[in-house]
Amino acid sequence: MTNTLSPAAPVAPSGAGHAARAGDLPVLQSAQTRWPMPPARLVLVTHLLDTAVPYVRLFDRCMDLVGVVPVPYSVQPEALSRLDDLPVTVPESIGDVGTFAVRDAVRAARESELPVVVQEVGGYCADAVGELAQSPSVRGIVEDTKQGQWRYERNMPLPLPVFTIADSPLKALEDVQVGRSVAYSVERLLRLRFYRLLSERRVLVLGYGGIGTALAEHLRRTGAQVAVYDPDEVRMSAAVVHGFRVGARKDLLGWAEVIVGVSGHRALTTEDLPLLRDGVVLASGSSKQVEFDVEGLCRNADTLVETDEVMELQVASRTVYLLNQGKPVNFLEQSILGSVLDLVYTELYLCTRELARRAWSPGLHRLDPRMQQELAQQWREEYGRQW
Fold first, then answer.
1. Model confidence over 253-305: pLDDT tens digits?
2. Which pLDDT band, with edges at 50, 70 and 90, does 127 fall under?
3. Which helix (H) or strand (E) holds 118?
């Protein structure tokens, strides 16, 4: 089946030849040989970036890949074209992602008695988990992200097993790379679109979890003045220990020239507009458009001009600049680069294998810590060689 792309579905930019140079995944390939996948069918919800092409290809070789549903804001054209022989369907909107994935999973369960697993990245199927549970062949779901895990937790008790890697110690290593990637994208846009240097800006990081910690530290290394706000007092105390500026939220919002949201929740609403300084730049490092009330900002704007990756709004008697429509700025590039992808992809593969090889009880599950240790050792031996 050839892939389909609605004309209304936006795609991320990509340079020629990126997908062809995405590289191999030696740890994942080794794991697939050591722990082969039993016969099973897969529905894959993914960010279809160039770096994901070899990952999707591996699953196509080891499973019956019945459907690939990319998240619309993270589809790169070359990656899509290099998978044109696979059943890839790009939804027109984020709201359709879960609908498409559930449809494919139910159809796959109806067509065959083979186990069906849904692997996803954002909790798109969380509200339909009851529908999936009605198909006996659907073994369960594998979730990649914290935002997705939170959505499944809100639907507890779960009628299906859901394996999550969101709070895995291996996944935590990815947070460092995501933080660096967000910082890079913000700096690139400041240079290209505002002719400013990040090192001369006052930056507020909203959210001090794994990504926020890595982001704040990386921003500080660029020379930026960095402040942190998190509603969790323990995290705020950690920010103090790490030497970052903290304070009352309203004061920090007025202090910042650049605000980067990585909380995984709604971090800024239209009620906060009077607190912002004129000319503030807003950037998100979270999935979807969760960090900022983009709809509210646009609705309240007197004027709105969008040029390339920057939306300029005149709202509440001030100018506000919103990067990438409030979607994660790191997806303007490749989101995550480097060897850590091999580690995260392999843990996702092993969780998928757990569901494919036997039935699990309903509820949240994690990969066995002993297997995580084995995987970490294999990854370290592959990428941590001393020359």
1. 999 999 999 998 999 999 999 999 999 999 999 877 899 999 999 999 999 99
2. very high
3. strand 116-120
Closest by CA to 137, choosing from 120, 115, 161, is: 115
pLDDT digits (tens, 9 = 90+) for 146-191: 999 999 999 999 999 999 999 999 999 988 889 999 999 999 999 9
Q: Per-residue pLDDT for 308 more than 50?
A: yes
Q: How far is CA 160 from CA 43, 140, 372, in A?
A: 16, 6, 23
Give CA angle at 132 (126, 135), nearest 5°. 170
If we measure between CA atoms, which residue out of 235, 176, 183 comes closest to residue 209? 235
Q: Torsion-angle region of residue 63: left (phi > 0), alpha (psi -120 to 50) or beta?
A: beta
For the stretch 89-93, contacts whose Cβ atoms lie closer than 8 Å and that sit 24 or more positions apart, written own/partner, are 89/3, 89/4, 90/3, 90/4, 90/5, 90/6, 90/9, 90/11, 90/48, 91/6, 91/9, 92/6, 92/8, 92/9, 93/9
pTM, whole model, 2 decimals?
A: 0.85
